[in-house]
């Protein structure tokens, strides 16, 4: 539902500042064109940018009927926002949804801009921050709940302990696992066991490259630059924000393209990434689990050596042929 009938305006030059400001407040900002494709959270206040919608409706022969009808069906809390030069046009076109225009003061704390919900800082549950007793309980759960794969479980326990040690020295940024094997051998189950310990009530952050087209994979992952149709934050950015778990599952990674491979190479090296909207995500202390139906031969043919060298632990579950990156 629309919280008020005010259209908030912003300067185009300050868009990234606005995006960051709303993100830090726990709110979301996205284009009208993305409404149908989003998984919405009832605890989030959404700002819908109608700049592109107004441009489209201004063209000769365009009707406002479908847009107005669609806005009437929205059952989540939202406010409308637009670039300043187009505000008057939008008010004329959508007069049944807009009664007034107000400038969005980026860093104000006015009640008209705040969400009705309390501001809450989300603390990520990271495996690197677990106490010794918590780590022991996690490893016990892994050994009890994952059927078979004794060698894998022993080695993974070692890698987790080693990662925790190096994180304290600020040397390792991300614990990365690459699990290969046929469907049903337990690759995804490992991720679920670890996630359920870290965030039992939350959803697993899962990115499936089998659902991506190779042409737009990176844009879908971290968003496309402003000005592109549907440009906003990508799937990875949105899911990280909504989860308290410091674990990410990347499924069917072999179906990603070279740009995505290079993105993850940089992420594993730096421990952070910046999405297309200029928002930085710090993933230091996270576990990233890549899964693939490749075998060892296919893995070495498709994944380039630089990326392989950055992955902490690699295992083919079917044969339990596992090895780790060597630390200098």
Automatic annotation (TrEMBL):
Pfam families: AAA_2. Residues 173-321 form the AAA+ ATPase domain. It comes from the Bacteria. One of its GO terms (biological process) is cellular response to heat. Keywords: ATP-binding, Nucleotide-binding. The keyword Nucleotide-binding applies. This is AAA+ ATPase domain-containing protein. It comes from Leptospira ellinghausenii.
């Amino acid at each position: 539902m629309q919280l008020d009938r005010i259209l908030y305006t912003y300067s185009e030059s300050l868009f990234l500042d606005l995006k960051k400001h709303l993100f830090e407040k726990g709110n979301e900002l996205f284009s009208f064109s993305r409404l149908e494709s989003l998984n919405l959270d009832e605890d989030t206040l959404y700002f819908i940018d109608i700049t592109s919608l107004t441009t489209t409706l201004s063209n000769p022969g365009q009707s406002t009927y479908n847009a107005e009808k669609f806005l009437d069906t929205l059952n989540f809390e939202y406010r409308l926002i637009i670039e300043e030069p187009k505000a008057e046009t939008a008010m004329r076109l959508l007069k049944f949804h807009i009664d007034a225009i107000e400038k969005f003061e980026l860093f104000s704390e006015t009640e008209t801009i705040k969400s009705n919900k309390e501001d809450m800082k989300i603390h990520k549950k990271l495996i690197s921050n677990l106490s010794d007793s918590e780590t022991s309980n996690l490893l016990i759960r892994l050994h009890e709940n994952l059927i078979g794969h004794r060698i894998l479980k022993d080695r993974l326990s070692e890698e987790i302990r080693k990662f925790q040690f190096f994180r304290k020295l600020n040397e390792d940024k991300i614990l990365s696992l690459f699990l290969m094997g046929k469907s049903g051998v337990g690759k995804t189950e490992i991720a679920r066991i670890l996630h359920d310990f870290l965030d039992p009530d939350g959803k697993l952050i899962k990115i499936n490259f089998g659902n991506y087209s190779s042409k737009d994979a990176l844009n879908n992952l971290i968003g496309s630059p402003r000005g592109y149709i549907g440009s906003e934050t990508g799937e990875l950015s949105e899911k990280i924000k909504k989860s308290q778990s410091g674990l990410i599952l990347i499924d069917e990674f072999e179906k990603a393209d070279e740009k995505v491979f290079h993105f993850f190479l940089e992420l594993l090296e730096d421990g952070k990434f910046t999405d297309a909207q200029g928002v930085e995500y710090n993933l230091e202390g996270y576990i990233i689990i890549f899964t693939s139906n490749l075998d060892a031969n296919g893995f070495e043919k498709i994944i380039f050596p630089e990326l392989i060298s950055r992955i902490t632990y690699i295992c083919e579950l079917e044969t339990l042929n596992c090895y780790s990156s060597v630390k200098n």
